[in-house]
Design goal:
Pfam families: YjiS-like. It comes from Paragemmobacter ruber. This is DUF1127 domain-containing protein. This protein is mainly α and about 70 residues long. The chain is about 70% helix and about 0% strand. Helix 1 packs antiparallel against helix 3. The longest helix has about 30 residues. The chain is elongated and about 75 Å long.
């Protein structure tokens, strides 16, 4: 019995590449919006409120980065 295994390189059309780029850009803009809003909201808190959350004022940017982009 003979078996045929055929594989070919996937070629993406220009439209596929453009739509992928647009989707990636939208996702990046959404992540950036989450980052900016998190920074804005954490900076609006007092030092006491941040301490209650266990966050130092110096850690606001890293907490926002983790919230938006993960570790």
């Amino acid at each position: 019995m003979a078996y045929v295994n055929s594989s070919r390189a996937a070629s993406f059309s220009l439209a596929d590449r453009i739509s992928g780029f647009v989707a990636l850009t939208k996702a990046n803009l959404a992540r950036r919006a989450v980052y900016k809003q998190t920074v804005r909201e954490l900076n609006a808190l007092t030092d006491r409120e941040l301490a209650d959350l266990g966050i130092a004022r110096a850690d606001v940017l890293s907490v926002a980065r983790e919230a938006a982009y993960g570790k």
